[in-house]
Amino acid sequence: MPTRREVIDRIRRAIAPLYEPREAEQIARRFTFERCGITLTQYVVAPEAQADIPDLEESVRQLAAGRPVQYVLAHTEFCGMTFEVGEGVLIPRPETEELVAAAAARAVAGAAALDVGTGSGCIAVSLARLIPDARVTAVDLSPQALAVARRNAVRLGAEVRFVQADALAGLHELPDAAFDLIVSNPPYVPQSDRAAMHVNVRDYEPPEALFVPDDDPLRFYRAIGRAARRLLRPDGRLWFEIYEQLADETARLLANEGFGDIAVRRDINDKPRILCCTARK
């Protein structure tokens, strides 16, 4: 049986062609620590302890092929909670945690919130947990994503209503003037960027949750914005995660759709990433 150190070394070597050294080390440690049920401190104290990982061979093969470590582990962390993830749902990112934190901080107790394009349910579940007495609805077109999101909500004790709906088709399944805030991390990466993306994203995460046509990269913002004009209560807020290279264009689009108080915030990497605006009736 290999030691903890040997497992980390083996994974790092296997994925070295795919990642920069620091990221390869992080992936190798994350997998090993989680599969062994240990912390960094426990590893430092006993790196030569045996690592009993029954599926090690298959896991190394998958990681070496570029499969995201979050999919191999079948979960990831978001807003201090553990979410089930797998093929068919986008892996939650730290930038989206910033979006959720900003939206929750401005919401009042009992607020009615809508998450458009829920995926794993990370936004909806987090809003339900962060906003006291929140009434949260989450929509997605994918039955597979909705199944994962429902399991996450149940396991994390979050009350969320899930609805299958197409964000590009008007969201007519939802009632008028029903929400105080709408939060969305829609697809926004231009299709032409796909070739340059890392294999673990390009070849494994659901393309429908990532990419948009080059000739209409703001299609989801336009559609959700128009639906939000009907769905939001007066002075309700619309929150988006945005593509940093189209921040100004996204703000102009929403202004043209009748939204006011448009503000763009920078994320932890100093990129324009979060947009908030207010519905004007």
TrEMBL record:
Keywords in alphabetical order: Methyltransferase, S-adenosyl-L-methionine, Transferase
Reaction it catalyzes: L-glutaminyl-[peptide chain release factor] + S-adenosyl-L-methionine = N(5)-methyl-L-glutaminyl-[peptide chain release factor] + S-adenosyl-L-homocysteine + H(+)
Enzyme class name: transferase
Binding locations of substrate: 185-188
Annotated EC: 2.1.1.297
Pfam family for this entry, one: Methyltransf_25
Entry GO MF terms: nucleic acid binding; peptide chain release factor N(5)-glutamine methyltransferase activity
Iron as UniProt keyword: no
GO biological process, one term: methylation
Binding of S-adenosyl-L-methionine, residues: 117-121, 140, 185
Domain Methyltransferase: 114-197
Family as reported in the entry's similarity comment: Belongs to the protein N5-glutamine methyltransferase family. PrmC subfamily.
Family annotation (NCBIfam families): hemK_fam, RF_mod_PrmC
Function of the protein: Methylates the class 1 translation termination release factors RF1/PrfA and RF2/PrfB on the glutamine residue of the universally conserved GGQ motif.
Protein name (Swiss-Prot/TrEMBL): Release factor glutamine methyltransferase
Organism classification: Bacteria, Pseudomonadati, Bacteroidota, Bacteroidia, Bacteroidales
Gene that specifies this protein: prmC
